[in-house]
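Is this the right way to post structure tokens for a design question? Let me know if I should format differently. Anyway, here goes:
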């Protein structure tokens, strides 16, 4: 994968030159969070970053370094998971966007590999606030689970996105197969109590996954990746035309 669209590998002069060609930048957000016995803690930000780079190759936009921490409630008690608060996340969103806005970027594509409810809400709240403050900024928050509603029938077997299950594991087999402990894949659907606030999700889940990782394969991962890239490309093209 070529790296010429990634800010961390560019000089300031190269970024300045690129700004004459595009005002669009992708911000990959993720988490450092448990993903079962078979996937690394880096799964969320690795997937977001790798997809962002592939999108950038097609659209000639730039990609910022990934944010490796997010709001993790479900897996916070598993060893290795590092969670931040919603206010911290909102501060990151604000500081990063206002910094790149001051440099000349106007189209901000937030691509979050972590889809925890509180995490997404934190991003959305701050993004909406920034949008009200800057008339000429455009912000999109990419939700991969919504894009994947366009998956053709029969590509995946589970009827939900899950966590470290069929979809995420298939994506990792397509993007970073060396990091997948294929022999440790398992299936689990935790029976969380409805309506009741729980303090320790680990009481209801052993592996840390939600779904069936044994159904994942490379062919599914390549198809999922294709749909995601195309969906994000379409969002960027829509923003560019507005």
């Amino acid at each position: 994968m070529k790296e010429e669209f990634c800010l961390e590998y560019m000089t300031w002069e190269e970024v300045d030159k690129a700004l004459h060609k595009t005002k669009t930048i992708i911000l990959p957000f993720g988490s450092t969070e448990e993903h079962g016995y078979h996937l690394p803690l880096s799964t969320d930000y690795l997937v977001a970053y790798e997809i962002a780079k592939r999108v950038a190759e097609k659209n000639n936009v730039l990609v910022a370094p990934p944010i490796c921490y997010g709001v993790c409630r479900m897996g916070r008690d598993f060893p290795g998971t590092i969670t931040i608060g919603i206010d911290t996340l909102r501060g990151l969103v604000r500081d990063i966007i206002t910094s790149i806005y001051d440099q000349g970027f106007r189209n901000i594509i937030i691509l979050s590999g972590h889809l925890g409810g509180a995490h997404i809400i934190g991003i959305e709240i701050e993004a909406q606030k920034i949008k009200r403050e800057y008339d000429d900024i455009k912000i999109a928050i990419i939700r991969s689970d919504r894009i994947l509603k366009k998956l053709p029938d029969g590509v995946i077997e589970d009827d939900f996105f899950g966590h470290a299950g069929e979809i995420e594991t298939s994506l990792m087999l397509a993007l970073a197969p060396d990091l997948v402990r294929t022999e440790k894949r398992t299936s689990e659907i935790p029976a969380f109590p409805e309506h009741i606030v729980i303090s320790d999700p680990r009481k209801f889940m052993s592996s840390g996954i939600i779904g069936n990782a044994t159904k994942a394969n490379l062919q599914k991962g390549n198809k999922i990746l294709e749909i995601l890239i195309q969906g994000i490309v379409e969002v960027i093209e829509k923003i560019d035309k507005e």
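Format looks fine. Someone answered above. Worth noting: Residues 37 and 71 are 21 Å apart (CA to CA). The first helix runs from residue 12 to 18.
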